[in-house]
Backbone:
């Protein structure tokens, strides 16, 4: 399919490839880990291999714990939630279907349930202690789907390869245009545009598949 | 229908480009591009809201408590080597790794999974196809499963390569607005690929059949080889084995008609010489 549209906005000066003055070779990967690592972890986990649980804990415990900590605002409760998430995940591993969700997304789903339970437990305690507690505003911290999305996004951004990560951080958090980003990083304009598109699609896919039911 | 270029959609989502009249008209008529832009725009919104988040790893005793509650076997007795299963760095680079003996599995005697043993063969879907699949799934209310994520990642991985050479592509007189660049990448399997990236103006235009063919031409003009047809603004082509790129150093994109003649039409759009990077 051809695109006959003339787009003067993306026209560039004929100097898109840097010559000399830089490293002789540049790596172009988009992710700094082999994505199959996660598949291997998930397979081992689903198969009941304890090494799979350990690897899943290594890979996702910081995400789970940070979610709980931000939502509950209490270190002890966040640690309890983290423990419950991995215990519940291991005990219900037969319900995990790697063809339906990434293990990380499935763990996040469990985390949300455990956080909700923790908030509910707080309410029960409060009701028991104070008869009129139901009328009082409950101090719920940042507890929402939006928090899950932001943390997921932050984590996925961290996992991009250095070059696309730099590109996306500038694209997100600076006022630079893609042309200025290319100048700033000394990259060909086409490379910058390509990294932006690929990284956005990757990040977007991760957000989409994070809503799997537990 | 000609959809809006993927990279242009991404830049529009970032607010880096404003859709022109043609793109606005297309968006008004095309549910696919509208869905795609909406999803990318939402991604940008979440991405910008994710600034400055730092991850906090749980203390080491949480892992001990999990093992205890699940009555898992003693790690040392299992004879597992003292190497981390996966690096902790990508999860929480801001958090110092606790290397105390109880810190498993982050840095302690965690079991090692042989990640190579069961690694599936890589699939190489075309990224454009993957995007359309994802957008179609949204459009028809289907659940876009995690498989798509794996596909996208896998295709990204397959794209990884080392840049060996690059070329600016300059226009021929009939195509004054055409611009482009080309790079030679070598992937992890040692396959050299020619990646061309052209402006939207580098279309073959309405006067011919609209085919554009990508060639490698010897610098002395005595021979040439076709590597494939270019669709859209970016293409990736395997460089045939045995082609010496110091000899075949000219990258050429020609306008071709669908006339069954496999040779070069003589109607070049842009051309440039590869130089080592």
Residues:
């Amino acid at each position: 399919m051809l695109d006959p549209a003339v787009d003067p906005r993306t026209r560039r000066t004929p100097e898109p490839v840097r010559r000399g003055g830089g490293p002789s070779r540049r790596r172009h990967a988009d992710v700094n880990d082999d994505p199959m690592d996660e598949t291997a972890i998930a397979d081992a986990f689903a198969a009941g291999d304890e090494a799979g649980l350990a690897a899943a804990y290594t890979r996702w415990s910081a995400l789970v714990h940070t979610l709980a900590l931000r939502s509950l605002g209490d270190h002890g409760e966040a640690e309890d939630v983290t423990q419950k998430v991995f215990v519940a995940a291991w005990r219900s591993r037969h319900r995990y279907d790697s063809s339906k969700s990434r293990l990380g997304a499935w763990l996040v789903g469990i985390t949300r349930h455990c956080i909700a339970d923790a908030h509910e437990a707080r309410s029960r305690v409060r009701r028991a202690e104070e008869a009129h507690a139901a009328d009082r505003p409950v101090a719920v911290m940042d507890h929402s789907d939006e928090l899950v999305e932001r943390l997921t996004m932050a984590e996925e951004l961290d996992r991009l390869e250095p070059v696309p990560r730099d590109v996306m951080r500038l694209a997100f958090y600076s006022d630079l245009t893609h042309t200025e980003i290319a100048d700033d990083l000394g990259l060909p304009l086409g490379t910058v545009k390509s990294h932006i598109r690929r990284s956005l699609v990757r990040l977007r896919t991760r957000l989409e598949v994070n809503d799997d039911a537990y | 229908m000609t959809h809006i270029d993927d990279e242009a959609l991404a830049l529009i989502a970032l607010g880096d480009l404003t859709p022109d009249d043609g793109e606005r008209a297309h968006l008004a008529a095309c549910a696919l591009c509208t869905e795609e832009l909406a999803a990318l725009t939402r991604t940008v919104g979440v991405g910008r809201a994710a600034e400055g988040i730092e991850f906090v790893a749980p203390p080491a005793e949480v892992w001990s408590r999990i093992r205890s509650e699940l009555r898992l076997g003693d790690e040392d007795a299992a004879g597992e080597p003292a190497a981390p299963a996966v690096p902790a760095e990508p999860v929480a680079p801001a958090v110092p790794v606790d290397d105390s003996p109880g810190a498993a599995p982050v840095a302690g005697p965690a079991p090692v999974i042989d990640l190579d043993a069961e690694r599936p063969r890589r699939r190489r879907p075309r990224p454009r196809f993957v995007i359309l699949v994802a957008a179609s799934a949204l459009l028809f209310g289907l659940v876009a499963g995690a498989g798509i994520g794996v596909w996208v990642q896998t295709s990204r991985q397959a794209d990884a390569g080392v840049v060996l050479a690059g070329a600016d592509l300059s226009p021929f007189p009939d195509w004054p607005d055409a611009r482009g660049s080309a790079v030679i990448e070598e992937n992890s399997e040692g396959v050299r690929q020619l990646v061309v990236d052209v402006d939207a103006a580098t279309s073959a235009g309405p006067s011919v059949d609209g085919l554009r063919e990508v060639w490698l031409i010897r610098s002395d003009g005595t021979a040439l080889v076709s590597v494939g047809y270019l669709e859209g603004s970016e293409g990736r082509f395997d460089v045939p084995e045995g082609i010496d790129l110091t000899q075949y150093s000219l990258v050429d994109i020609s306008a071709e008609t669908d006339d069954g003649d496999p040779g070069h039409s003589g109607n070049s759009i842009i051309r440039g010489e590869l130089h080592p990077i």
Notes: The domain at 35-141 of chain A is CATH 1.10.1740.10 (Rna Polymerase Sigma Factor; Chain: A). Chain A touches chain B through 104 residues (CB under 8 Å). Helices of chain A lie at 36-46, 50-72, 75-91, 103-129, 145-158, 162-173, 178-185, 189-208.
